[in-house]
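Long-time lurker. I teach an intro course on protein structure, and each term I like to show students one example going from raw sequence to a predicted 3D structure in token notation. This year I'd like something fresh instead of my usual example. Would anyone be willing to generate the tokens for the chain below so I can use it in lecture? Attribution to the forum is fine with me.
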Amino acid sequence: MSGLYLQDLLGTRVLGPQNEVVGRIEEVIAEAQGDELLIVEFRVGIFAYLESLASSSFARVVLESIGFRSGEVLAVPWQQLDLSNTASPRLLCDPRQLTPASI
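-- Reply from a regular --
Happy to contribute to a lecture. Here you go:
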């Protein structure tokens, strides 16, 4: 991959290993190393995607009762996200192995 625009990734659905939608890319975390910025982590919002599918108050209550919390964001290390198809980034690990992002 020669390059990509981060603006094209923001909001993109992230798929899991079994083609399930995990969430959407909300943030990209980078660190300065010399004259370069290196991506270290992607933050993927899981509740926002599910909430958009379930617009009713009842659906939100059901989602929260099974463990999804409003505003929950997963920290995805850069090496765990396959960007070979930028229209459909894919996790290279089980989403349950990821931890919530520290905000």
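Some talking points for your students: The mean pLDDT is 82. The chain has three helices and seven strands.
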